[in-house]
Structures are given as C-alpha cells and as structure tokens.
Protein 1
Amino acid sequence: MNLYFLIAKRFLFPKKKFTSSAINFVSFVGLFIGAASIVLSISVLNGFQDILKSESIKLYGQFEIENYSDKADKSIKDYLDSNNHSYSIYNVDELIIISENKQSLIQFKSVTNQSITDFYNLYLTEKHEALYDNEIIIGNALASRLSLDIGDKVKIISKDFKFSSFGVPEAREFIVANIFNNRILRANDSLIFGIIKDSKNKNLSFEFNTSEALNTNLSSKISSWKDRNKQLYEATEIEKKITFFTLSLIILVASFNLSSSIMQITSKKLKDLAILMSLGMNKTGIKIIFIIYSYLIGAGAIFLGIFFAILIINIQNSFALIKLDPEFYLVETLPMNLFIGDIFVLVAGSLVLVGIFSLIPLRFVKDMSPNQIINRQI
C-alpha cells in the first residue's frame, strides 16, 4: 500500500508539469469551496435556531405540562424540588387590554414573584421588584403600540365580554410595573406577566427546563419547546436541508472536474502505467493508485475546507466581526454554531461522491495491456 501511495503522490505533484498541477488545483479549489460553504451556511442556520430555542426558553421554559395535576405529575415536581431545579406553575388567559382609546388582544400569564426572579429570564427596563396583585409586566412592542410607560394604568377585560349586573363589561385596572424586551415569536407584542392571585378552579400549567425530570414520570401531556414552536422549528430544519442540498451541487460539479482530472492524468501517464504493468502490477493495483490519487485531492480539499470554516466560526464567535442590524435579525452579531453530526454527514457524503467519480474514468483500465499502450505510443 505504501508503494501505491508513493506513486499516487508522484502523479499528484509531477515535476515540470504545470498543466497537470493546474488541473489538480482547480479540482481541489472546487471541493474546498463546496465544503467550506456548506459548513458556514449550516452553522449560521444552527445559530439562528439556537437563538429561537434560548429566547423561547426564557419565556416559556424548555418543557411544559398542560393542566398540571398534583396527583398525576407530583413526581416531577418532587424531583425538581429535591434537586433544587427551578420551575414555574402558571395560568394563561386570553384577555383584552385597553389604554385610553387603544386596545389589543393579549395573553395574560399569571405566575409567582419567585418564578419571575428564578425561572424566567426577562430583559426588564428596570430592576425587578416584587409585583402586587394589581401590577403587570408587559412587552416593549405592546407598550409602544399602546403608548404606555412604567407607572401608567390600563384596564383588562375578558375577550368573552362578561358583563356585570349593570350591563358593563367586567374590567380590572392594572399598573404597568415593568417592561420586558423579547422579540422572538412576537412575545413582546402580546404577552403580559401578572401574579397568580387565586389558583382554585383554574387549569394550571407547569414549566421546567431539565430533561432529567422526564425520567421520573413520562406523561403524554409534556411538550418541549420544539413541539410548541413546531412550525417555525420545522421551517428552519427544511431550510437547513435545502441549503445543504443546494451547496452540495458545488461538490458535485467539483467531483465531475476531479473525474476529468483523473482521465487526463491517466492519458498523460500511459508510459508509466505500461512500465508498472510490465513489472507485474495488475489492473487492480492501477485502480488503487488513481483512487488514492483522487482521495488525496478530494479528502484533502474537503477536510481543509471544513477546517477553514471552523476557524471562521471560532473567530466570529470570539470577536463578533460580522455585525447585523438587530431591527431585522433580532441579534447584533451573526450567530454561528456547528454540530458534529453536520460535519459527519458532509464528510461521508462528500467522500462517497469523490469515490464514485474517481471510479468512472477507471472503467477503461480493464481493457488496457502493456502491448496496447506501447503500440499507441510508437
């Protein structure tokens, strides 16, 4: 095998053969660009997907149990309590908020003061202090649309318009105690946090972040952040697959070029091949030489492209050189994250393509013989 490698290496770096070196270089660059482009593009999509996850968890937790029951789900709560994990028991109602002549449909999330401090990660305008029953925390987009500021008063009524005995819709007055900022899923445009006043006769829900608690009592009611954002998450997954497939065409085209390179180098090395076959090397050995030759170009370009992309990702994550407009992208710098699984799929698929296209031009080797080659050269 060492002999095959040395011969393939000699074919790859011929002396005083600029044309052959140029063909090899073009094939190498194509595969390099393809691999680097896929890694960089997928890492950006992974980065935005991570932002979706982290921002969703800040407001809703990683896992949710709808209609929490002390009997059916008590084991999970006991596990979290015994291991000092944070969680939140809450209730959500769809209501209407009114400020002067403006109104909007909202989700009123009733939680505890401890949950606001220990569980939810809200970017608040002012330092958090304990909320009273008549105080709320609203999103900055909702506050801007209703022209509200901290300390202003609003009225909240049921969207079903429950009327009092005087024929007036029942309404409660609240004071805006704080404003949070979180643009993901338009949460700051419709979500309001308040304090649970009375949990009796309410269908409470339960949010937590640790997956270990699921092992204590698996319940069909449990949903993850992916389940609750299924459409958006699946959209990003489809975009990743389309991006991967589209950029893989670069590697496909480069593999065609590599196949052409092997055909040309084979035609240029007919005398060498005749000598090797005269010395006893069989046709399988000739094929092995050119397979090694193709993988020296293909695998080298792919791994170097991946290494270059990983270097760019680390530089961006460390120094944030690429800036974004937070008004459109939610973040100030380009997020990049790479998973080992993505690299494995890229490497496996690329090496399979290189192998296939390296075998195509070698089909005519089976018809070669030393005498035929020598007669062609005379």
Protein 2
Amino acid sequence: MNNPFTLSFGKKPLQYISRIMQTNQIIESFNAEIPSNQIFMITGVRGSGKTVMMTNIADEIRADESWIVVELNPMRDLLQSLAAKIYGIPEMHARFLKARLDFSAFGLGVSIEDAVPVTDIESVIERMLEQIQQDGKRLLITIDEAANSENIRIFASSFQIFIRRDYPIYLLMTGLYENLYDLQNDKSLTFLYRAPKLMLEPLNYTAVRKHYMDIFGLDMETAEKMTVLTKGYPFAFQVLGYLYWENREKDIDDILPEYDQYLEEYVYGKIWSELSELDKKVLLEISVNQESRVLCIRERLQMKSELFAVYRERLKRKGVIDTREYGKIRLLLPRFAEFVKLQQI
C-alpha cells in the first residue's frame, strides 16, 4: 500500500479530516430556497486546508444535478473565463443556440443569422444566467487564493450586479486572511465587507487521534502524542503521518528533526519572511521566554499598549497566534516556537 498521506498543497489527500460544521453551514446556506448568503470566504494560514475544504464543498455541490460548478483562475480575466467555461458546458451551449444568443463577439461560438450580437461581457453573462435560471439550476463559482487584484475587483463589482438582479449565482473564495481583509476593505467593494469569512480552526483532536490509531494500529497514548505534535494543523497532520509511514521502525522523537525541516521549508520559512521586524520580536519573546501573558511580553519589549495591540492583531490575521484567552497570547502552529528560536542564531 502506498503512503496514504501527502505533502502536496491543494490536492485532497486520501486521509482527509472534514470540517463538518463549517462545510454544512456553507452547503445548507447555498441550497436554501431563499439563501441568506451567496458568498462565503474561507481563510486561514498556509497549510490550514482552505483549498481542500473548498474543493470538497464544490465536489459535494457538483454531485447535485441542479448545480453548475465553475472554477476560475484569479490571475486571468475572470468575466471572460466565466463566460467561456459556461459556454463550454454542452447542455448550456445547446440552450444558448436554441435561444439564438450570439456571443461570437467574444470568440464564443459562431455568429447567428438575424441575431443581434451581445457585445458587452457583463451582458453575455447575464444572458447566460437567465438561461441557467430558466433551466432551474444554480451556478457556483470557486476562486482559490483570492487577493485584492484588479481582476478580482472587476469580477466582484459585476458579481454584485448579478446578485442585485436576483440571478442564481454563488461564490466561494479562499485566501490568506490579510489578502481577504484588504479585499473586503476596498472602498469600491463595500458589499464584500458583509460577506461571511470563515477562519479555519485547528482540526478536531479526537478525529486526528482516531485517524492515526486506525492507520497505524497505534495505542491511544502514542496516537495522542502524535496528535499533540500536530496541534490540529492540517499540513502538520499530513507531514507527521507521511514521515511516520516511511519510518515506522523509528520512535516518534527520532523523526522530529525531519518533521521540523518539512514545516520550515514548506510553510514556516515563507511566513517568517513576510513578517516585520517588530512582528518577529514579539514572536521571539513568546518563544524564547515561553511567555504568554500580554502584559509581560509588552513590558519586556518596552511597547506601549496601543502599539502592541497593532502587532498582536497583525499576527492574529496571519494565523500564527491565538488570542482567545483574555490577556494571553499563544502560538497556534506546531513546533513554531522551536523554529522561531533558531531564527535568532
């Protein structure tokens, strides 16, 4: 049997722990007769499973024949791509021809005799959405790793128009917290500010432990030790499982150096490179002195409360600290403290 764990980002692994509540929240909202939300944003730190969760939701919805699911590349012209992908669906293509809709101005099909060509891309998509609506279907668009780019801004502005006109169109996006935050706070996209943003929490410890016990035939104590080492971080769950599968003759402690190396090279190095000097100082203080109390950290760094609050919020958005306990800060990522300590050498 091949290794059931994967080190690849974005691809749904064989060993996948679903986030049942958040997944159901999105699917049930989209399937509601009168949906309360037609947009959801999934966010979290790198390796938190954003893309995998979005893919899983898209697959579940795609299994319903009343849905059309289209995946768009945020680096391309999104409106043009959306029109091309809808037109490429055989049953929709047939409907457009039957309705004598001429989209040839955008390279979609051929000109239709005595039909007036549609020459605006928004109008093209509106005509398509009318046909989708008449066919009793809904359209889900997924966009991975969205950011505050021109392509996304143009698309989002058009999407708002489609929603106002009551078309059956839905949007599911993933992105790093700071990227989605910038997008939502763009002055031209105020409607996005109200869109639900789901921050991915750590995986359920019980589910992680059970997976390790079932796959490796481990006793609860050993599986618990592995679970604690992951802190519920999805990429860490995959890495530790992958390494243990390849080194089952070794003790867990013996594979920790390789575990740390994978976390650093795949995720932590990138996160660290994007931090400011003060961000790094805060993390060093937490890691080196094993201090979690905000007051002590702030006093050691000689930072005023107002300034410290800014950096605490920045690190929270980047998904590296947990601020849920009043007056305390804890590191969210597994063995991140060990990584941070090495950065001062």
Protein 3
Amino acid sequence: MNRRYLLNGLSLFFLVVISSCTSKPDEKSTVDTIIKEDNGLQISLAQWSLHKTFFGGPVEDWDRFGRLIKTYPDSLLQGEDPMNFPKMAADYGVNTIELVNVFYYGKANDKAYWEEFKNKCKDAGVSVGLIMCDRLGNLGDPDSLARAQAVKNHHIWVDIAEFLGASAIRVNAAGKGTEEEVAASAEAGLKSLANYASSKNINVIVENHGGYSSNGKWLAGVIDKVGLENVGTLPDFGNFCLKRGDGGCIREYDRYQGMAEIMPFAKGVSAKSHEFDLDGNEVHTDFTKMIEIVKQAGFSGYIGIEFEGNDLSEDEGIKATKALLEKVLESNS
C-alpha cells in the first residue's frame, strides 16, 4: 500500500478538510445553503447544469460547436447571459458555483469583465469554487510541443481562478495512444501545469471524463504517479463510459468501483444526474451508495449539482438533484 492510500485510510478516523472553495470572512454568504457540521459536506452548483439555458437550447452539432468556440465563441451564447450565473445559483439556495470556461471563452483576457463578474458574485453572496476547463488542447498529447501548448492554454484560466478566489481548475487527462502512452503523457502535462498553478495557489483536478480517464484504476494511477499536493481528482458519479456508439455508451466502467478508486485523491465531487423516479431517486445512480463512498474516503468539501437530463427542465433537474442530495446527506448525518 503506498503512502497516499495509507493516509486516506487513516482519514476515516480523522476529519480531513478538503474544501473546493472558501469564502473570505468579509464575503460571508447570507444565502441559505446546506452545511453539514458533522461531515463537512456542502452543496455547490456546476454551471453545466444550465448549459441549455446559456446556449439557448441543446447543442445538436458538436463539430460546429468546436469550430465556433475557436472563432466566434460569443455567437454560441443565444440564451441567458452567463454573467447572471451567480444570482441564478443564489436563487437555488447555493452559495458556491463551479464555472465552465466555454461560457466565457471569448472573455478570457477581458479583465474588466472578470472584475464585474467578481462583483456579481459578491452581490449575490456567492463564491467561485472551481473552473471547469475544456477545449484547450490535450494535456496527455504524446507530441511534446502540442502538450506544452495545451499547458500554456490553461494558464489564463489558472490566473482567472486565482483572481476570482477559486481553489482549483478542472482539467482533462486526454490524449491518443495506448493506456501506458497516454498515462505517461498526462503525467508530464499535469506536472507542468501544476508547477504553474502552484505559484498561484491553485489546484489542478482531473475529472473522469471519457476515454481512459473513465477507468478509475487508470486515473488513480496517473494521479498517484504525479505525486503533487495540488493535483487531484474531481470524481463524477456518472462519467464512467469507456466506449460510445451511435446509441450511447456501449461499455461502462463500474461507477461505484471507479468512485472508490479515485476518491482518495478528490478535491471536489460532481453529483451527475439525469432521470428521477417518483420517489425522487436518480434512476441510474444510487446516490446513497455514492455518498457512503465519498464519506468512507474521508472527504470533506463540496458536492456539485450537475444535471444533464432531458425529461426534466434544467430548473426542475437542479431542484430534484439538490433535494436528493439534501435527503441523502440528512439520512447519512
């Protein structure tokens, strides 16, 4: 047993405080939020839960999306202004938000925009926990020059995270090649990015987000080899699809095993939801079992609502996910 796993075993007996975001004393939220004093688990809201609201509808053509995000990113925003996200989250009774960079792709270097956004957060009594980063290149690219460019592309989001008072950016450990090749490349990319992020006091956390990263054992192995304190994971309840076909996922890693494997490195948790039964339980994921895994890992911090369903509206889905999390946390307190 390596040192990291041993420490996480001991954390079952000692409270380990791993917070995705902390508010400054003078910015204490007045919003009613769920705070569990006994286990330190709190609820945050991932911005992707409202992606249809901001895009003005579902994304039907991801190839077109990929082209526009690089050329005319603001043209993708046909709905609600992402500047309003802090107030929207506060209206759900949540005081910590998880941003997604694609909603702000065209504003990355706009300092005035981020100053206004920070003021919006303060006015709403909301703090930024982390920024989810996509479409910036592969940190596991086998080409060293392409990987170095991907690392550099993430720097601006590290800077924004620092400015907003966030604790982390979420990245992807993607690349082409064999499991071993991508693991080695991802290790190099993460180490390089983490060195820059550490100078800003920012964590770099990897989500199980498709490809090899949805294999819990693989991702845990990569993070363990990186071996840096500011590199960890963002375990997602539902992102364990290893291979997709025309009809959806055709091969999936066991989600409960995967969660148990990557939770020892967690600096945040994402509660993915899609559908609910008449009793308010998520159809695809046993939230009670997931929260037990989270607690057994000694985790204390934020569990982010991330609704991606189609049967309910985004508003209804967020409320249903929040209600389920509250119920499970209450019953497990």
Protein 4
Amino acid sequence: MALLNEYFLELPSDDLFSDVAKKINTFKVLRPHTELIDLGINDVTSPLPSSVIEAMHKAVDDMADSTRFHGYGPEQGYEFLRDAIIKNDFNTRGIHLMPNEVFINDGVKSEIGNIGDLLRSDNTIGVIDPIYPVYIESNAISGRAGIFNKGRWSNVCYLNCNESNAFTPMPPEFPIDIVYLCSPDNPTGAAYSKGQLKKWVDYAIKNKALILFDASYEAYIQSPDIPHSIYEIRGAKKVAIELRSFSRTAGFTGLRCGYTIIPKELTIQTLDGRKIQMNTLWSRRQSIRFNGVSYVTQCAAAATYSELGKNQLRQTIEFYMENVRMMRRILSPLNLKIYGGEHIPYLWIKIPTKSSSWEFFESMLYSAKVVCTPGIVFGPGGEGYVRLSAFAKREDCKNAVKRLKDWLE
C-alpha cells in the first residue's frame, strides 16, 4: 500500500499569495470597468535585453545544425557559463572559486527545497521573519518545521526582523542547525553590512551551523559597504551555501535560470561524527534528480556577462531603482514609516492605522484601486506592514503612488 508523506498535510490549506489573487479577481468581477494598478507584482515587466535575445537565437540555430547540436548537457551546468559567473560575479570581488563549485539551476525557489534532500529532518531551522514563505514551506514538507499553529511553525526559530534591529537580526544566544538569510531582503529591503554578516559566519563556525544565503537581489545594492556575496567574509566558505538568480536582474522569470555556490571547504556532519564534503554530495544529487538547464537558456545567461549585456542589465536595474526612488519621493511627505527602496526595488511600509495588513490591503484595493502585498503573507513578523513593488512600468508606478497620496491625505 502506497502511503502519503503526511508532512505535506501540515501545510496550511490556503496559500496566502493565492488569497491575494482571489481578492483581486473578486474586485475585477465586482468592478469590471475600474482600472486597477498592481504594485503587489512579484514579477518583472521589462523585456529581455537584446544581447540575451541574440544569444538565444544563435543557440537555437546551433540546435538546428548537426555539428553544433547539444543534447543532454552536464547536470551541473555548462562550463562556459560557470566560468563567466566566477570571472564576473566573484573574481571581481576577490573571491576565488572553481567551476565545480558552481551549479546552474532553474531558480532559487526550487533549489531552496532541493537542498533539503541532503539534510536530516530533525535539523533545527531559523529564518528571519518576515521572509519569503518558500524557506519555511520547503522544510515543512520534509518534516523539519513541525506543526503549524496560529501562524507559526512549532520547530522554526523566528528571528524577529523589525524596526528596532533595522530589519537585520543578529545571531541568537542558542545554536540553530540551519539558518536562512536573504540580503538584500525580500520583503523588507534591509541589507547586511560586512560586520553584521561576519557575526553570522562566526556564529555558524562556532555552532557548526549551515547558512543558506539568498543573494537574488545583490545586483541592486547601491553602497560599496554592503557585501554582494557572503564569501566576502573570511571563513564563510566553510559554513555557507549561496544562491543567486537571473530572474530579477536579466528578466529571466520566464526562462528560469539561477545558480548555487557550494564550496569544497563546506562539510556536513553525520550522526556518528564523520565530516562529508557537501559539494560532492550535491553533485551526485544533481546527477540523480536533475537533467540540467537547457543549452539555449544557459547561452542566454552567459550573454548577460558580455560588455553589451552588462550595460543593458545596469540600465534595467537603474530603471527599477528609479521607479522606487520616485515612489518614495512622492510618498515621503505623508509622514509614513517607509523602509526599503535603497538596495532593492521594494518599499516596506508600516500601516499608519490600526488595521491589519489584510484590512489595509483591501482598503487600498477598493479605495485607491492599487494592489499591494499584505505583510502577513511573509510571516507573522510582517503583520502591520505592506509591500509595494517597483517592478512595474514607470507610468503605473507614478500613477499608483499619486492615487495612494490622494487616498492617504
């Protein structure tokens, strides 16, 4: 008799992001002729750069030629892309990696869950709160999160991320086995300094913990004092896995491509005390359960490292950052407590009333005709806030915040 993985049943019956979509659809049914502006958007709106399109066309032509055709590729990724990543994303920051420490994947979201294949179900986990839900839910499916009750998981250590600590919580006094960090952070926009990250690395070394470091938004960092990689911190290769994505930087949300760094220095311990190189285990896991990212997509990703590609990506990033700066300028006179927008194109706004984040979301939806994301979607620490995205078109951003200004005044 086949039996279900019953940990899956512990997930809440409703996906809160789906609840947002349902409420928007209800609005559209009730008010079909009302123009709604979506600043809750978690997708990009700028088209792919021409350098990427050209590379994809050439790669498709390769697939039509028997002398250049590519079938199954290496599960870990083609070396031409891995080399480009090392040269441009890490060597420029004084970080030295080998190609076999870079693993090409189809995005951070799936990779966060897949890494759990190598980790025992009784590991303790810690997450900054609020945080993107996949960090917790992927552990819940594996049984590491415990029982869900009143918005919290019983076996999860929630590292409170709030105004008092500038949304960058420091290590606790007790050990945690696996820690999830995101910098710059979605949804708060906070970014860890080198000094702050060093405290986390030192903590992980002392407690033999594993850090999963999500650097999906590192390309948006505006200050030279903010590290783009956790490996800028001495000792981090011993305790950290870093994950990155081409989704927000190059518009690959539809193409699906990212990469994971697992240094050879990183070891994980067995119950009987043996230390096993995690890089070797992950390479073996990928060979078993992953067929790799398509040749066409990897050629597209490699094109972002050409001189033209890098210039075009900078223009796209600046476009979104100018969106968020403009939004902040218009909203600032309202005496709102606004966070984010410095190193990420999101604004994290404290609700100026006693409303819950769901109530404020619906009030904004029906009164201002603007969509935000209620903070509670990102965990219990998000209650009392909403997130506005600047990944929208320029006119939509401008018109939306003008509507919000009129409504809030």
